[in-house]
Design goal:
Blueprint (H helix, E strand, L loop, with lengths): L5 E2 L14 H10 L4 E7 L21 E2 L2 E10 L10 H4 L5 E4 L10 H12 L4 E4 L11 H11 L2 E5 H5 L7 H15 L3 E4 L12 H9 L12 H7 L11
Parallel strand pairs: 1-2, 2-4, 4-5, 5-6, 6-7, 7-8
Antiparallel strand pairs: 3-4
Helix pairs in contact: 3-4, 4-6
This protein binds zinc ion (2 copies).
The site of one zinc ion has 5 residues, from loops.
Length: 244
């Protein structure tokens, strides 16, 4: 089993229920020998998260901190009308965006409609990852999801935090078993993320890695296992975040 060069889904204290600064997160990433750290604060819809105005000045942050390349993203909510909770104005400034369903701002609409809402968000060209598609509180049709990921160039996440607290995400292991089998069948990328809400969890991808191994998952489909694979999948990084 190879190791991961990037962790693309993490939160800092501005998300409202996370506890590190960008620098503390980057320092932790350096200690874990990660090359790339994606910071993806929650978009509006999650209580206490940052105002979107925040996304407009991330160019103030150096691209490299502690030798780690910092990417700026957002974890954007899928809403019940199939739209995203962050406007194009901000999405287009980010290096990439993640779409995810969160019960704080989404009401279960049944398997078919949940899947339709999520896929409608995946069609937005700024979305490159779906976070934690693993929770039967808002069940998904995995065949439809994986085919949409293939069609719209989106990687499906195996979320290490879900596996750390499996009582929170209903049937997550069984759902990942299904999703991963379909990803192999349709050759769809998966991404392994910590979803860290504290520096101590940055780069914590071990439970997800164990799961991939258990299911004999093809490591050539793991987006963040190789630098060239990651950067040929993501869009060109935004030049306004580079040092002048
Ligand atoms: Zn999330
Ligand atoms: Zn998250």
């Amino acid at each position: 089993m190879g190791k991961f060069i990037a962790d693309l889904h993490t939160h800092t204290l501005v998300s409202g229920h996370a506890y590190g600064t960008i620098r503390e997160m980057a320092q932790a990433a350096a200690e874990k020998n990660l090359e790339v750290l994606g910071i993806t604060e929650h978009a509006p819809g999650i209580p206490g998260t940052v105002d979107p105005f925040y996304y407009g000045n991330l160019k103030a942050v150096p691209r490299y901190l502690y030798g780690v390349e910092v990417l700026h993203g957002s974890e954007v909510n899928v809403l019940n009308d199939g739209t995203l909770s962050l406007s194009e104005h901000y999405l287009e400034r980010l290096d990439y965006a993640i779409a995810g369903i969160h019960c704080q701002c989404y009401e279960d609409a049944g398997r078919a409609k949940n899947t339709e809402n999520l896929i409608s968000c995946m069609q937005n060209p700024h979305i490159y990852i779906v976070s934690h598609p693993d929770d039967d509180h808002t069940p998904l049709d995995y065949e439809a999801l994986v085919k949409a990921a293939r069609d719209y160039h989106v990687a499906l996440e195996v979320n290490n935090s879900s596996l750390r607290k499996p009582d929170k995400r209903l049937n997550c292991v069984e759902n990942y078993r299904q999703m991963l089998a379909l990803c192999q069948q349709y050759r769809v990328m998966v991404v392994v993320d910590s979803d860290a809400h504290d520096p101590s969890a940055v780069g914590d991808q071990s439970l997800a890695a164990d799961l991939l191994e258990q299911f004999s998952f093809d490591f050539s489909l793991v987006l963040n296992a190789e630098r060239s694979r990651l950067f040929s999948f993501l869009p060109p990084l935004k030049p306004h975040y580079e040092a002048p």
